[in-house]
């Protein structure tokens, strides 16, 4: 099997990671850079797009042809976009359909732009391994809906990847922090402050699987806002020192670009230094600028922005119905959380203790042991390694994509494990026979959302033998178990003899997403006809049972009943048979109303026969016990 890489396709930066000899690591590009700006520049209609750092440099110079933050638009439709979300320096088409970006006369979908970023990461990974890389796990924010996830997946496919999984970013981060090894029932908050977005997710680890309990955030809050504050601040200082206008409409793009880069650089350096020197030589031919900036000054400029994350955190806690003290850990994700003020803010907000033995204090631990801008990519790589079988005995962050069950009487699907159950999981049910003296039972394993067995996918079949007995007597326990590797074990056991059979089915969890989507769509589309079919099958089973019982009773009471009564019963039985015979072979359904009416009539007419049979049985019993002659 070929290798799978993990990719963090971020709003501002993207990364590709892998697990090498058991160690997760970010793959650097040829120049040793591990973060690729998620920026794509289109020099002309013909030229190949420029991706990453080079594109970022021309972002301010060529605003209309340089696309950044396209993650905001992926999988989204024009009408659902709020006005402030559309504020970017390149044009956007937000008509009825999907949002598109017109560049050099072509209307590009956001996923086509993301695909360019992914292609660059793919090339970097291939250069690192010295061989083609064709499979990937790609992360998305926990709040992404189906359309956004599907579009992200398509971006991966356009880039030439088989997208093995779309993984939630907070879950990936938790994996990178090794939190899957926490005790069962742990709760974790993932505080993710990136370049342009903030989100807080609350995860619960339960039975080795992460669930996102709640997520809340702001898609227009991040490090970029701090950069802008600093740019304005520096522009004022430049003006005060007699320099040119750098801010606002009058600013020259090239200068603005330099100011933006200088601001971000200063901000980044102030995370480790307490004071930095900012130099902007030759802003004009005769004007150079130089100043020092302290960490305290930067903090004053950004404090209120950081404080805005507070309400989102509180909302997520409220949605998850937990308090900060219920959390075991708070982890920080996103480059901007390297800023000491952000760390302090998050720690204070959740009442954290910054030590590994926080548990003793009853307060959550603020865990900053991983690089916040790499954690998501590393987690994706860990998930990729799990999928390719490299890491054994670790949790699989997975749910069953479709329901699993077996075929029962009348060709119906009996669900044992419903769709979207988290795995590993175990479920069982008791089954019996439909006919007398059956010697075996066919266990037909099915997957799908439809009511009838034949509309679902057949995963396998096997038979279990038992001693012949009257219908309904044999008891066969069937158990489905999906293990952490996503393999379904089907066990069938004859309760009486304890004889059992176990069959392994590998394809139960790794199902192609498109096929899953189609199955779910079809189940919705056919919901009514499926339900009608199930009702028919159930009524038919009942009718067949009643007919068999009637025949038995007629034979048993042959001497006691009059010919006329017998005829009337037979006519009523024939009515039922007629409706059954009229079943449409293709749809497998018939006239339910007529069947119900015919069956009711038969029930009504056989009531005296049933009484007679009861009396006879009672008499036989009494006679056997010697109570009557
Ligand atoms: P995203 O997930 O949105 O792509 P990232 O996690 O890459 O974003 O975060 C990018 C943001 O983090 C940028 O605003 C960047 O300036 C900021 N950042 C990166 N490193 C540091 C640092 N050392 N100190 C402060 N901010 C930083
Ligand atoms: Mg991110």
Keyphrases for this structure?
elongated, alpha+beta, Substrate Binding Domain Of DNAk, Chain A, domain 1, 629 residues, Nucleotidyltransferase, domain 5, binds magnesium ion
What's a concise summary of this model?
The protein has 629 residues and is an alpha+beta fold. The protein has 15 helices and 28 strands. The protein is 35% helix and 25% strand.
Give the arrangement of secondary structure elements.
Layout: E1 4-9, E2 13-20, E3 23-26, E4 36-37, E5 39-41, E6 50-51, H1 53-57, E7 66-68, E8 101-103, E9 106-108, H2 110-129, E10 135-140, H3 146-158, E11 162-168, H4 169-176, E12 186-193, E13 198-206, E14 209-218, H5 223-240, H6 253-269, E15 275-284, E16 287-294, H7 295-307, H8 309-320, E17 329-333, H9 340-349, E18 365-367, H10 375-387, E19 398-399, E20 404-408, E21 412-417, E22 422-423, E23 425-431, E24 440-447, E25 457-465, E26 476-482, E27 488-494, E28 500-505, H11 513-525, H12 527-556, H13 563-581, H14 592-605, H15 607-624
Parallel strand pairs: 1-10, 10-11, 12-17, 17-18
Antiparallel strand pairs: 1-2, 2-3, 2-4, 5-6, 5-7, 8-9, 12-13, 13-14, 15-16, 19-22, 20-21, 20-24, 23-26, 24-25, 26-27, 27-28
Helix pairs in contact: 2-3, 4-10, 5-6, 5-7, 12-13, 12-14, 13-14
The structure holds adenosine-5'-diphosphate and magnesium ion.
